[in-house]
Amino acid sequence: MVSAKDVIVIMWNHGEEKISEKMPKEPVVVYKKDQQVLSYVSVMADKEKLLGRVVKYCEPAGLNYENNRQYSPSGAFVLEGVPVDSKFDYSWEEKPLWRGYHPLIICKALSRLVNPTTVSVEYAARCFFEGAELISIAPQNYYGWATAAFLPMSEEEVGKQRSWFTVEEISSLNKLFGEFLNGKLPERLSGLLWFYELAFSTEIRTVRWLLISQALQVAVSTDSVKVRQQFLKRLPELAKGVGIAIEKKEIEDLWVYRNKVSHGGRLKEATSEEFRLLQKAEEIIRRTIKKALLDVNFASIWGNEDVIRQKWPVDLSCKKEQKTT
What is the SS3 assignment for 136? Predict the structure, then answer.
């Protein structure tokens, strides 16, 4: 009888310190639904040595040529119990779907709320088994833009980041997963989540800033007038509500970046200060989504635009210009 597992492999960051004793040595369950089990498998828990094979067969070989990869897997998210009719049932597109998405696509997005990594669909596949024997690996053929993932920092700083998850982080992810599937996230914040997720798919700073600034506006804007005032007044209150201290100048600088990229401006060479500000903006988004999933009262702020207006009032009246003589 044929069975299948769907896999998204996570690669080590360039320059990252490798094997750690803190890595889970056994698969850790992320979420169970029906007959399906979604788990996090670190490289130390990969007893089948499946992850390296998924990476190998997701990269097309040439004529008398095989790719020499600089990086290797640090772990993976694995979905077991995938409902397949045969070993030719390759595609993720139709099943399984949880709330309209493949479970691993949801997991990829929600995992960034507990540890923002470069997990992506670059190495995504469906693996078929007969008993315990691996018989085929079907890459999901994700190519082009939105395939890889990038962190908002210099290459040197990326090497200092951790690409793997702890047991405690997976436990937090389990709670987030359950609340997401239960529909606890208001529609407005669902948009916030997917803007945030899409921002990870580009290393072009202009595009990333555009997506992140749009996400911030989704969180704080209710009206088409006095958009700047809404941003400057409400964003500090939102940041405070999720435990982030942000100065007035930082808010104004965020608005400057928003304006520049929204009106066709191009960014010059990145600075450490720009990356720091971008990271803070993304941390506000990350904490907002996470808190909203776990705190129904906090989430209710975005259930209705009038609640946002009442929670963080902004004078939206437009004064008429005085006539001059």
Answer: strand
Other C-beta atoms lying within 10 Å of the C-beta of residue 164: 23
Distance separating alpha carbons of residues 63 and 44, to the nearest angstrom:
33
pLDDT digits (tens, 9 = 90+) for 70-98: 778 999 999 999 999 888 888 888 788 99
Q: What share of the chain is helix, strand, coil (3-state, %, to 5)?
A: 40, 15, 45
Contact 200, 152 (CB under 8 A): no
Q: For the chain, give the number of residues.
A: 325
Please answer whether residues 163 and 74 qualify as being in contact, where contact means their C-beta atoms are separated by less than 8 angstroms: yes
**To which H or E segment does residue 37 belong?**
strand 36-42
Task: Please state, in angstroms and rounded to a whole number, the distance separating the CA atoms of residues 194 and 94.
Answer: 20
Task: Show the tokens assigned to 324.
Answer: 């001059």
φ/ψ of residue 322, rounded to 5: -75, 140
pTM above 0.85, yes or no: yes
Beta carbons within 10 angstroms of residue 20's beta carbon: 13
- Specify the DSSP class assigned to residue 65: B
Cα 31 from Cα 111, distance rounded (Å)? 12
